[in-house]
Amino acid sequence: MSLNLPVLIAASVATLSIIALYKKFKGGLISYIRGPKSNSFIFGHLLEIGYSPAGDFHFPWQDEFGSVIRIKALFGADKLILSDPKALQYIFHKSAYSFTKPNAARTLMHTMDGPDLVWSEVP
């Protein structure tokens, strides 16, 4: 059984488009949090943040939207930027085990540094 490459590409594009549209219109737990408008649905704010000096976007956004900001990541996924000291203290000191690392981040840390304290988590 051989697969036709154009059909495979078209099916992949259609699947990714359906997933992206579903995520865009579904909303989410953080969809009510204010944040800047994104110029790109595919890259979100990641190009702006990645190719600018540290703080060029964060500080004006913090002045406009406050200490909790919703930004867009790849394909319209919502991400949070926190700069509230109380929220950060809660996350890092009080309930760090409630905020587990994504599997991709754990795999990357394990690949780069091996099984160490940063990689480990309590399930």
UniProtKB/TrEMBL annotation:
It comes from the Eukaryota. GO terms for molecular function: heme binding; iron ion binding; monooxygenase activity; oxidoreductase activity, acting on paired donors, with incorporation or reduction of molecular oxygen. InterPro entries: Cyt_P450_sf. The keyword Nucleus does not apply. Signal peptide: none annotated. The keyword Transmembrane helix applies. The chain crosses the membrane at residues 6-22. Keywords: Membrane, Transmembrane, Transmembrane helix. Gene3D superfamilies: Cytochrome P450. This is Cytochrome P450.
